[in-house]
């Protein structure tokens, strides 16, 4: 049994529907991959020396080496817990041998920058985060 050929408008509608369905499927899959917040921890003492210095400066309120330090971090990667815009701030961890900012950062969350609720270290420019804790191995913070 042969059917009639589809008109151009019907073909366009079918293709459009398929594109929308595929886009919706990819969006849901992308959202699911970023919905789970799973950050490991790193002890403050395990941070690189420059990370420890940056961490101490955060709690002192500076001074910081780069203009971007202390600016709002958007959390567009959605790896950190979702919070209202302005909750997270980013700070550069100097990388020896680099004149620019490099990839290492500390991102802190809280409404008072010099007294954050939590800080996270990334060595790979926001691709992964480790929550900074005072101690590891089940010891109290």
Automatic annotation (TrEMBL):
Keywords: Hydrolase, Nuclease, Signal
Matches recorded under SUPFAM superfamilies: Microbial ribonucleases
InterPro entries in the record: N1-like, Ribonuclease/ribotoxin
Signal peptide: 1-31
One of the record's GO molecular function terms: RNA endonuclease activity
One Pfam family recorded for the sequence: Ribonuclease
Entry keyword Lipid biosynthesis: no
Gene3D superfamilies referenced in this protein's UniProt entry, alphabetically: Microbial ribonucleases
Keyword RNA-binding included in the entry's annotation: no
Superkingdom as given in the UniProt entry: Bacteria
UniProt-recorded name of the protein: Ribonuclease N
Naturally occurring in which organism (per UniProt): Comamonas serinivorans
